[in-house]
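Ticket 4471: requesting a sanity check on a complex prediction with beta-D-glucopyranose. Repro inputs:
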Amino acid sequence: MKFANVFAAALMASAASLALAGGAMAQAKEEVQVLHWWTSGGEAKALATLKDKMQAEGVTWTDVPVAGGGGEGAMTVLRSRVTAGDPPTASQMLGFDIQDWAEQGVLANLNDIAAKGNWDATIPQAIQKFSKYQDQWVAAPVNIHSTNWIWVNKAMFDELGLSEPKDWDELVAALDKIKASGKTALAHGGQPWQDATIFDSVVMTTGGPEFYQKALIDLDPEALGSDTMKTVFERMAKLRTYVDDNFSGRDWNLASAMVINGEAGMQIMGDWAKGEFLNAGKEPGKDFLCYRFPGTQGTVTFNTDQFAMFKVGDNAQDAQTKLAAAIEEPAFQVAFNKIKGSAPTRTDVDTSSLDACGQKAVADVKEAAEKGTLLGSLAHGHAARAAVKNAMYDVVTAAFNGEYTPDQATTELVTAVAGAQ
Ligand code: BGC
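Returned structure tokens:
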């Protein structure tokens, strides 16, 4: 090569590497800060699919984890950050909380990206109701979870000759049998949101969907103060007799671990519990079983995790748009929800590769939506606004811990709900 050519080649090479570096630098500047409460093993694994996807698209992921199911802790941190003028790019959020934040005028308008991704036609109305505020998409839903499930240790059920309990009496009979065998019948963590998660199911099995709607969604004082509600509290007190002595304050995933390792027979928990079983290498149908909470088949008490997007400066918008688009991408919806334990939020994705529990989740949601029995979970912010939800948490937890008789709890519930509205 002649000198001039060598010189030209070297110049071109360094220009190319400069361009590369420049590109990398521009990419490195794209960042999303994501606040969430997915801190258990299964949850973190599911979230990693989103993190990796963003990073593959050149967007830096800054994780802001705040532990605590139901998101109470996360919402406290979020409030202080927004108040300080430092909102994250996106925050995991449930139901009515999205509406509350939208009302404050701090959420971004995602209508363009929603139109491109066909969100209107593919995301069920029951979910859009929470993702949209005054006709504007303000959050990207990632899944459909539900709370009315029980998670069962199969080996223990086989050993004790137990099969799926189909109603309350059969549930009690199964719990009695496990307790008599010397194991913990019910794995539970005594935290208000977990107590309330059980309450969702007990209200549904005791009163049925119409009662659930009237009491927990319409907040009808007559339903809240009814004999049916008294029976609900009696049943909650009965369930309390099946937990172990150390239940107080235990995290939900540690309760799942008790079922996984054969210490306990079952857990009443949303289908994020499946994520823990899978993460422990357990298989549905072989190691564990997923049943609808006895007597609630045909109904679904749902919650949908959404990423609400905050208004951010112009230079962060691109990354935010990429995040919103990624969440609704059909292939991502399947990959993520397989690990998370939930059903995809989009109805146009191929769910044939989900495991048996996942298939059941999808079919149950579809059936419930058609029958009008797809009802928002109180425990997870989809039945009533936070103030009412928290007021109910207080009564449910106090009653579960024996501070109120079922009669007193029923009266307190009416008073608490009235006071919180
Ligand atoms: C969320 C789930 C989460 C669970 C436990 C619920 O409120 O919707 O996604 O796995 O809390 O952290």
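Notes from triage: Residues 37, 43, 69-71, 94, 145, 252, 272, 303, 305, 380 surround beta-D-glucopyranose (CB under 6 Å). Leaving this open until the requester confirms.
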